[in-house]
Amino acid sequence: MELNSLKIGDLIAKVPIIQGGMGVGVSLSSLAGAVAKEGAIGVISAAQPGYLESDFGIDSLKANIRALGKHIKRAKSISNNGIIGVNIMWATRNYEDYVKCAIDNGADLIISGAGLPTDLPKFTEGSNIKLAPIVSPPKSASVILKMWDRRYGRTADMVIIEGPKAGGHLGFSNDSILEYLSKGYDKEVLEIIDIVKEYEEKYNKKIPVVFAGGVYDRNDIEHYISLGCSGVQMATRFVATEECDAHINFKMAYINSKKDDIMIVKSPVGMPGRAISNKFMEERKLTNEKISKCYKCLKKCDMATIPYCITGALVRAVKGDVENSLVFCGENAYKLDKITTVKELIQELAY
User: Fold this and answer.
1) pTM more than 0.90
2) What is the pLDDT of residues 68-77, one digit of tens each?
């Protein structure tokens, strides 16, 4: 099967692959720029992109906005003005500030999940930036598209389906994750595509549907395209690249992992997540972390009750302390066995 380009309005990606946004600091300008340079879509995570800024511990919002702007511009430069998206979690505090930063610094696309981004169209009014909500169960697709239609008289430019094998935060309950893993998710993909078609007809525009979660090789890509998707989003494969912004220890944690090491964890965001088992997560089964500092990253977070500080845990991971941290990953992380380059990976997947 020959892969067609991925068209999002007037944006055209030669390669129908979106590199998933990975925070904290795993997908910044080095990775996103390299991906977009090869004709796919590179994505910067807006989850604490300023973690290396000198004032991050004093004013994390100011540091994050400054860093996000720098990384968007740098990624555009690396990619020779390729397509750069920003993944902004709806659960993020000061969400509107990150959206404005993405627009002001020339991002092409906002991808938003970790809850349904109900007011995203309001924050982007008057701009040309493309909007792509992340949905999981078909009901979430129906709710967000109906809400945007009724409130704002507009629809999504693209819809990303995040299935139960995805990495990081998952839009499912623990029970439904296990159910879908056993029976598969194709039926739900087809149902969401049908929901999107209603809005394609109403707005007389093509709304590409992209699948994410457990997409590992060319066979997986072809499978989801055969179901009617316009492309796929992949994150795990891009971690094991030279250009990935994470520490080499983070990349090797994927390469050294075994299937039994991949676990569903409890996240302070209020959703289950998928990560690599380590000392830190085993300790969290027994006791909550003693938290001394709050980075004010999430809208709903109570230091007194959360199992651990997600910012602290993710910062330690991306800096290389993979035993005392949260190492988010996808279902297939254990399949990785070497570090490659973005160029080689895109060649393997797309040609």
Assistant:
1) yes
2) 999 999 999 9
Separation CA 285–CA 132 (nearest Å) = 35
Contact between residue 4 and residue 16 where contact means Cβ atoms under 8 Å apart: yes
Residue 279 buriedness (CB in 10 A; 0-12 / 13-18 / 19+): exposed
Cβ atoms of residues 69 and 93 within 8 Å? no
Cα–Cα distance, 61 to 256 (Å, whole number):
34
Single out the residue of 272, 130, 134, 103 nearest to residue 211, CA to CA: 134
- Report residue 220 as tokens: 């997986």
Query: For the segment 243-278, what is each residue's pLDDT rounded down to a tens digit?
Result: 999 999 999 999 999 999 999 998 887 778 999 999
pLDDT at 221: 98
Q: Check if the beta carbon of residue 207 is closer than 8 Å to that of residue 196.
A: yes
**Backbone φ, ψ for residue 35 (5° rounding):** -65, -50
Amino acid at 262: I
